[in-house]
TrEMBL record:
Stored SUPFAM superfamilies: Winged helix' DNA-binding domain
Protein's name according to its UniProt entry: DUF2087 domain-containing protein
Domain HTH arsR-type, residue spans: 1-92
Organism: Peribacillus cavernae
Entry-linked InterPro entries: ArsR-like_HTH, DUF2087, HTH_ArsR_DNA-bd_dom, HTH_MetalResp_TranReg, WH-like_DNA-bd_sf, WH_DNA-bd_sf
UniProt keyword annotations, A-Z: DNA-binding, Transcription, Transcription regulation
A Pfam short name: DUF2087
Domain of life per record: Bacteria
GO terms, molecular function: DNA binding; DNA-binding transcription factor activity
Length: 192
């Protein structure tokens, strides 16, 4: 998870009403009027809080006729809540990549040409992660790239830059929002 998203998650949950809303939604989906009634608040207040929770991906909406039902996105809640714990307590998830330098070099030699082109993306997950980590070495931390720039960068490795881009996002090497891409710190990469 990108650091700015992690901060936004914790800022959003810094409001007791939002935590109370999440606690209500853990049991079952509810509509705004019901949430307002249970918490003793007005519906516009609930609308405000639901927008904040939706922005960070903690609630989902489902419309049934004229009523919108909100439900808790448990997976996003768990991932976001654990992200900071993993970031500050676990040893770097990249230790596996660092400790076995010879295997890493073997993967790079087998899957990249001498001029740096990717022959093919490895099918085996461990090797794919090594290849992706090698590809992102030329991206700078803290720089935001638009989609055209990231495509141009990835095209130097392989003509199927869309697949590379998708793999980088899925494995948390980069974070994407509104067609803008930013490197995640290596501690956030999914390497297992």
């Amino acid at each position: 998870m990108q650091l700015s998203r992690l901060v936004k998650f914790h800022k959003t949950l810094g409001d007791p009403t939002r935590i109370r809303i999440l606690a209500l939604l853990r049991h079952s989906p509810m509509h705004g009027q019901a949430i307002a009634g249970k918490l003793g608040l007005k519906p516009p207040t609930i609308t405000h809080h639901m927008a904040k929770l939706r922005d960070i991906g903690l609630v989902k909406e489902k419309r049934e006729k004229n009523t919108i039902y909100f439900s808790l996105n448990v997976k996003n809640l768990e991932n976001s809540a654990l992200a900071i714990v993993n970031m500050v307590t676990e040893p770097s998830k990249n230790d596996e990549l660092k400790t076995n330098e010879s295997e890493r070099n073997r993967v790079i030699n087998n899957f990249f040409t001498l001029d740096g082109k990717l022959k093919q993306l490895p099918a085996q997950r461990k090797k794919k992660i090594v290849a992706l980590a090698h590809i992102v070495k030329g991206l700078e931390m803290g720089v935001t790239y638009d989609e055209r720039e990231i495509n141009h960068y990835l095209a130097q490795f392989h003509e199927d830059y869309a697949t590379l881009r998708r793999e980088l996002v899925m494995n948390h090497f980069v974070y994407r929002e509104n067609n803008q891409y930013e490197m995640n710190p290596p501690e956030l990469w999914i390497v297992n």
